[in-house]
Amino acid sequence: MFGERRRRLADAMEWRGDWPLEAPWIRHAVGALPRHRFAPDRVYHCVGRLYVPVDRWTQPDRWADVVYSGPDDPTVVQVADGRPVLTLASPAAVVAMLAALAPEPGEHLLELGTGCGWNAALLSWRTGPGNVVSVEPDPRLADQARRRLDGISAEVAVETGDREAGWPDSAPYDGVIATSPAERIPWAWVAQTRPGGRIVVPWGLHGHLVLLVAEDGRSASGHVRPRPQTSTPCDDHLRRHPAGGVEETQGLDGADGIGITVTADKQTVWLRDEDNVLDVSTSRGDRP
């Protein structure tokens, strides 16, 4: 059932150049850990403006089509009040962020937002058993993801907690990756990352932010890396109601040249040059 769909998706990503040449391990990991193993038995398909449930056991072909719909298509796995509240992130977004994080075997990583567990599994495939800590605020989702990860013998420590607080008990980390956008970068994420480590965070609909922690550990700075987006049937609705990596554009019309610097007391957004400041907010998110 899945073989042809997986091949089509992989070929589409190859044709577009989504598979990073500098990180061939990602394609191998995705091949070894296909996304359908982490999708719940009920997913949702957008028909007009309505999210219609599709069940694996009663509509297996339709379910597989939704899970493997396209490189830029997230799979909606949870809906509340007619709105998507959780998705299995699109393959292209997952691949791009893993390439940006650039994890190495043996590195100690923190994931913020376990969700269905697919991204944590891919990280563990790269770094090895016992090297990934994943924080999920929803206890039910954390338990489900833990069972999926245990089922493939991925030794990931799934913890329940506030993602903004990170997970200090296992710090420091060589890298931190968030699976959904943040209005601001909590200082805890920087403080728990070793000097020279990377922090990767989705940035609205445009791409993802890649921060490098300074050698003195007192700041982190970096740019938004844009990525192409294609429209989906639910694109307009997802723009209004963020879920699992899809969010409003955070007040900026494009990602080219946007940079961010984070310190313990403030976050500064700048364009192309740190002297060209667009916005400053305090560690609490207030404008000074």
Give the arrangement of secondary structure elements:
Blueprint: H1 3-16, H2 25-32, E1 42-47, E2 50-55, H3 60-67, E3 75-80, E4 83-88, H4 91-101, E5 109-112, H5 118-127, E6 132-136, H6 139-151, E7 156-160, E8 173-178, H7 187-191, E9 193-203, E10 207-213, E11 219-226, H8 235-240, E12 258-263, E13 266-271, E14 273-282
Parallel strand pairs: 5-6, 5-8, 6-7, 8-9
Antiparallel strand pairs: 1-2, 3-4, 9-10, 10-11, 11-12, 12-13, 13-14
Helix content: 25-40%
- Spatial extent as radius of gyration: 18 Å
Instruction: Based on Cα principal axes, name the global outline.
Output: globular
Number of strands: 14
Structural class: alpha/beta
Residues in β-strands, percent: 25-35%
Characterize the main sheet. 10 strands, mixed
How many distinct helices? 8
This entry's quaternary arrangement is: single chain
Head-to-tail CA distance between termini: 56 Å
- Major sheet: order of its strands? 7-6-5-8-9-10-11-12-13-14
Order of helices and strands: HHEEHEEHEHEHEEHEEEHEEE
Nearest-integer average pLDDT = 89
pLDDT below 50 for ≥5 consecutive residues: which ranges? Answer: 237-253
Structure characterization notes:
By secondary structure, the protein is of the alpha/beta class. The protein has helices at residues 3-16, 25-32, 60-67, 91-101, 118-127, 139-151, 187-191, 235-240, and strands at 42-47, 50-55, 75-80, 83-88, 109-112, 132-136, 156-160, 173-178, 193-203, 207-213, 219-226, 258-263, 266-271, 273-282. It has a ten-stranded mixed beta sheet with strand order 7-6-5-8-9-10-11-12-13-14. The longest helix has 14 residues, at 3-16. It starts with a helix and ends in a 6-residue tail after the last strand.
